[in-house]
């Protein structure tokens, strides 16, 4: 079992950060939010993920539809690497021979952004200036979208997020756990759990 005991409310139009040492299950939990873990053979989940009251794991729910609403931002965002993100989004339409007016194409590209954006270490390969540009973008995005971000960078979590979940792992081979989930200010100034305090003050991890 990779991770257990995760219970949280992710606020709409806010940024939620997952922090914690390597292997504690941050990415795994993130991937369960749009059923991405299902692309790994044998991986399964117990429990519920409710989006506007609808369980994403209910029997009649199509995972492809889930991923249209809850999208994953990858470090390498374009499947066709020589094309822009816009061209990547429009590639399917073009391949089907459809002709679009430029304004319709713009609308299609903009509307293809899902309601919830999951970001797994989006800045880990970036220099500090590009990192700040992405952080500014995240702030803009949260006016319209719900953002969940996994980051190893605690300063980044403190800068960009409204809520923070701290995950920890008792030892190799043990499942990770959500230790504390609260307002980011609280987690970084006055956490309730000793483990959180030790982690944010750099005493382990
Ligand atoms: N594809 C996989 N197959 C088997 N086990 C996996 C797989 N992906 C992750 N795990 C295991 O799940 C546990 C949690 O890993 P996960 O990547 O979610 O942690 P993390 O907190 O995101 O770590 P990191 O900060 O290093 O990215 C680890 O024990 C890991 O070995």
From TrEMBL:
It holds the Pfam family ABC_tran. GO terms for biological process: phosphate ion transmembrane transport. CDD domains: ABC_PstB_phosphate_transporter (cd03260). Keywords: ATP-binding, Nucleotide-binding. GO terms for cellular component: membrane. Residues 1-194 form the ABC transporter domain. Gene3D superfamilies: P-loop containing nucleotide triphosphate hydrolases. InterPro entries: AAA+_ATPase, ABC_transporter-like_ATP-bd, P-loop_NTPase, PstB-like. This is Membrane protein. It comes from Platysternon megacephalum (big-headed turtle).
């Amino acid at each position: 079992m990779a991770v257990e005991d995760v219970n949280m409310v992710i606020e709409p139009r806010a940024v939620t950060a997952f922090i914690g040492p390597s292997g504690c299950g941050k990415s795994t939990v993130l991937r369960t939010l749009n059923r991405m873990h299902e692309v790994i053979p044998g991986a399964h989940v117990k429990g519920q993920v409710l989006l506007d009251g609808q369980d994403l794991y209910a029997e009649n729910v199509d995972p492809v539809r889930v991923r249209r609403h809850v999208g994953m931002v990858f470090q390498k965002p374009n499947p066709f690497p020589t094309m822009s993100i816009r061209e990547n989004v429009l590639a399917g339409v073009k391949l089907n021979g459809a002709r679009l007016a430029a304004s319709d194409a713009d609308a299609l590209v903009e509307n293809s952004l899902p309601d919830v954006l999951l970001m797994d270490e989006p800045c880990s390969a970036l220099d500090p200036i590009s990192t700040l540009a992405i952080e500014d973008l995240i702030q803009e995005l949260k006016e319209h979208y719900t953002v969940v971000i996994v980051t190893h960078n605690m300063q980044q979590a403190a800068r960009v997020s409204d809520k923070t979940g701290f995950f920890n792992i008792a030892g190799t081979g043990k499942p990770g756990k959500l230790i504390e989930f609260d307002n980011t200010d609280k987690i970084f100034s006055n956490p309730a759990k000793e483990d959180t305090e030790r982690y944010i003050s750099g005493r382990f991890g």
